[in-house]
Amino acid sequence: MLGFVGILVSDPWLQNQFTQVELRSLKSHFTSMRRESGKLTVSDLASRMGKSKVVGDQNLSNEERASLIQSFHPNLNDEVDFEFYLRIYLNLQAHVNAIIGSGVKNSSAFLKAATTTLLHTISDSEKSSYVAHINNYLSGDEFLNKYLPINPSSNDLFEVAKDGVLLCKLINVAVPGTIDERAINTKSMLNPWERNENHTLCLNSAKAIGCTVVNIGTQDIIEGRRHLVLGVISQIIKIQLLADLNLKKTPQLVELVDDSKDVEELMSLSPEKILLRWMNFQLKKTEYKKTVTNFSSDVKEAEAYTNLLNVLAPEHKNPSKLPAKSPFQRANHVLEHADRMGCRRYLTAKDIVEGSPNLNLAFVAHIFQHRNGLSTKTKHISFLETLADDTQISREEKAFRFWINSFDSSMYINNVFEDLRDGWILLQTIDKVSPGIVNWKIASKPTLLLIDVD
């Protein structure tokens, strides 16, 4: 088995601005442009980039593009090589981003980041939180103990992750038993084939447990592409933190609904929606009248957090009678309250005020794990007793669920019994196994049932 090398450029900084998918696409465009006349000069770039619609064609005219290129490189007769072309591409994209107001502000939103982001940045706050999580949950691992604890202020995380072992171990923490650890190559010096085996194992397993693995491959992990590696780590940790948000592990969640029909609807919700529903359920016990619909703008003022922690742990509420004068001060009070509860983790006051969606979700999920405020006695116990609890059924359901999830992120399911009821994902699965066997013209996609999270 040969290791995949990919497209390499001599400048490491330039290499790190692109994923392999982007490089392959740009290399194809560059080759196509140069093929027209056998060579490509600076004066040719504007018109040929416009024809191939390489960058911002709807936002730049040929004249604007030519003027910008000339300002970057006045000598129009110079021949263009691939690296020069990449630099021109970056400069043009930065100009287009400035026009449309995109910039890099949102480029660290890993769970939903666009794959075309050019200036790849990462959030230091998120990196530090995830490093602290890894240090905590993998501290006892025999192989990784020589690398842990990782310094959260450095980029050591991406060096440690290069051989794939840390990612495999983290997946097993999130969903125990996903990977047979005997299949992980853990020698001190791995050859390229063993390293590639680890990467393939961790990426396939991450996809199976529900991660969206797009535009990342073996070469990206080897090179320590920070925004891609941290994106996968973010999703793995999210899956771990939301693991208890189902009726199997937390039957007390039935307190959120009124009857068995509502219980069935609750079972069909994603873990994030259940977490929001739980948060709003607790907030209804307070004087807080707003409904929280996300883990970003709706919690930036920290008022929802203040009320949530007061109802969950009133014995630890802030003894001060003076109200906080600003969201930042209120956020600090929230974290002090969480610290007294023993669950201050994942975010800072700055992250709350700025509305970091990943870290706020992690914080709320951690609070739920630590103290969910739900009753151990419930009138719905008779319904829960009818749910299958056989170990063999659970093992087989998990195996089939992972298998279906490994096909495509659009087919992701949380539960085989509930999510396959309408047959649509079954049709998609059959079509994946035997392409073309399903006549989609006569298939009818079921209507999406919208459920209020209040």
From TrEMBL:
Pfam family, one: CH
Keywords recorded for this protein, A-Z: Actin-binding, Cytoplasm, Cytoskeleton, Repeat
Gene Ontology biological-process entries: actin filament bundle assembly; actin filament network formation
Domain Calponin-homology (CH) per the UniProt entry, residue ranges: 124-241, 269-372, 394-454
GO cellular component, one term: actin filament
GO MF annotation list: actin filament binding
Matches recorded under CDD domains: CH_AtFIM_like_rpt1
InterPro entries xref list: Actinin_actin-bd_CS, CH_dom, CH_dom_sf, EF-hand-dom_pair, Fimbrin/Plastin
SMART domains xrefs: CH (SM00033)
Compartments where found: Cytoplasm, Cytoskeleton
Assembly with partners or alone: Interacts with F-actin.
Name under which the protein is recorded: Fimbrin-2
